Amino acid sequence: MEVVQAVNLSKIYRTHEKPEGFRNSIADFFHRKYAEKEAVSGLSFSMGEGEAVGLLGENGAGKTTTLKMLSGILYPSGGSLSVMGEEPWKRKKEFLKKIAFVMGNKSDMNWDLPAADTFAYQKLLYGIPEREYRENLKRLTKMLRLDASLLNTQVRRLSLGERMKVELVNSFLYSPRLIFLDEPTIGLDIGSQDAIRDFIREYRRENGASILLTSHDMADIENTCDRVLILKKGRLAYELDVEELKKKSGSFRETMKGLLEGEGQ
């Protein structure tokens, strides 16, 4: 079963070009000029149930825009898109219960509250039964090697690695089936990176979940993904099997670096 099916997906951003000078600003009030930038262009790919796929590309290649369209945050400018059998931009309640979107550089937690308070709110928001909530909370903290005493600590007082772990617990409490991860290990120490990679693999194995992950750290892709998609200027440039690539090349990192920089296939 395909959990994601994108055909000729595109996203165009339209931005206002504000001119310099008072006179030009007055004229602009009546006749505004806009510029269009195509962030994603003609992107077609699919994901099977239980599959883990890495989405790579340089800054501005369209990775985060793609994730936002798949999760329903952004409406596509063109093409067709089906996620878990739904049109994601409709943001249906049942659809949102099946997906999670975690951004390594953006927090969904209230920094002035302990993580436990945000978890309790998540429990109410997603209608998680009490027993399931308690079992999931215990299991997730164990999988992430997270000290349970930290859940009652104000989030702003946690380290970067600890904050990322409570972010993951918060997003996985309701047992999502499709997870979008945008730079989940960015800025973390080696121990925290390893814990999060182990968590991704273990959660996927235990729950049969599908994972779509972006990262600039090749170790994230090498250790968690089956397949990799490489975007260049919003277009799909390469689609590769991770295990086959590791067998054929001496260094996965160097091979990926060469592909990203345009050195052959």
TrEMBL record:
InterPro entries: AAA+_ATPase, ABC_transporter-like_ATP-bd, ABC_transporter-like_CS, ABC_transporter_ATP-binding, P-loop_NTPase. Keywords: ATP-binding, Nucleotide-binding, Transport. It holds the Pfam family ABC_tran. One of its GO terms (molecular function) is ATP binding. Residues 7-258 form the ABC transporter domain. The keyword Signal does not apply. It comes from the Bacteria. PANTHER family: ABC TRANSPORTER ATP-BINDING PROTEIN, ABC TRANSPORTER RELATED. This is ATP-binding cassette domain-containing protein. It comes from Candidatus Eisenbergiella pullistercoris.
